[in-house]
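Whiteboard transcription, Tuesday session. T.W. wrote the structure tokens on the left side:
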């Protein structure tokens, strides 16, 4: 992946440290949309919730962008926040559009970043939450965008489900931190490791957490208990890609998610939540990883398999019956 240096597109920058560990750059934009435009937890104010004002730039392949599409769907914000999708293959120019995007008429995502800041330095990543009125980036941090979608647009949606309820925030934050480091980012730390030591470190941490979550989900419906929360959706976007991509492409091959009884049933349960399947595009997912990462897959051949049936029955309803019986 290339980057912008003071507004100029440059070749790929190193993404590993001196020990070969993959290092993910921090997101640069941390403004918040709030109901009245007041400043949020970070950044500046002036971004009031409004229908039609904001736009998401996403990749259907990217797990971080996928989170935002799920929340847009769950919160029934399709007609409130518009979306542009980049092409699945990332080449020498980074994320690009097959035709000029409908908002700014650009063919490269880097040009969107340059509208916000002509001297921008850093990675050009998805998702991007764009303010069409101010022509700037509100946020490019997915974990913060999903919380905005969860609560800031309450006046514009009939769905008032809270995926970050106050009573569970401590537990959600703890689970998020564990899963982010060892699973969400852990598969990348394994796949892009620059040394055997770094790979094995990431690999062990990944499967220790998967084993831990398998045990946790043997005794409760969701990660934070009986309530479906943001922690589950943050986990889901890695799980749904795991057997098709990370198991092979990133050498995370100790076990598939299909080999875990509870994780595999849990994955199908989440996939079958109304609207979620519409956000999963396995063609984009496989094409992006296998055709873009030529250092890992030099010929760019995209595998046909594996055969995945996320619509198959699952056993998670047993927890609903148990809760009703208490």
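and on the right, the sequence the group agreed on:
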């Amino acid at each position: 992946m290339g980057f912008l240096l003071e507004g100029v597109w440059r070749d790929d920058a190193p993404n590993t440290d001196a020990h070969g560990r993959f290092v993910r750059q921090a997101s640069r934009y941390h403004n918040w949309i709030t109901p009245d435009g007041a400043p949020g937890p970070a950044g500046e104010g002036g971004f009031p919730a409004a229908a039609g004002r904001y736009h998401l730039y996403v990749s259907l392949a990217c797990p971080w962008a996928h989170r935002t599409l799920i929340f847009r769907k769950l919160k029934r914000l399709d007609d409130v926040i518009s979306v542009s999708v980049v092409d699945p293959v990332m080449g020498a120019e980074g994320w690009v559009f097959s035709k000029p995007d409908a908002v700014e008429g650009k063919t490269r995502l880097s040009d969107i970043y340059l509208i916000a800041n002509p001297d921008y330095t850093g990675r050009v990543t998805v998702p991007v939450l764009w303010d069409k009125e101010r022509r700037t980036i509100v946020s490019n941090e997915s974990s913060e965008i999903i919380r905005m979608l969860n609560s800031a647009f309450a006046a514009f949606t009939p769905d008032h489900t809270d995926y970050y309820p106050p009573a569970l925030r401590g537990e959600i934050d703890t689970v998020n931190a564990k899963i982010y480091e060892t699973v969400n980012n852990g598969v990348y730390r394994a796949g892009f490791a620059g040394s055997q030591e770094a790979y094995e470190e990431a690999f062990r941490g990944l499967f220790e957490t998967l084993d831990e979550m398998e045990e946790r989900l043997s005794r409760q419906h969701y990660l934070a208990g009986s309530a479906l929360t943001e922690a589950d959706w943050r986990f889901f976007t890695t799980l749904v890609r795991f057997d098709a991509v990370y198991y092979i492409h990133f050498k995370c091959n100790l076990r598939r998610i299909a080999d875990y009884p509870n994780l595999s049933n849990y994955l199908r349960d989440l996939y079958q939540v109304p609207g979620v399947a519409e956000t999963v595009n396995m063609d984009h997912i496989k094409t992006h990883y296998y055709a873009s990462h030529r250092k890992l897959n030099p010929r760019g051949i995209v595998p046909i398999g594996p055969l995945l049936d996320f619509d198959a029955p699952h056993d998670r309803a047993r927890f609903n019956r148990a809760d009703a019986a208490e």
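Someone added at the bottom: The first strand starts at residue 3 and ends at 5.
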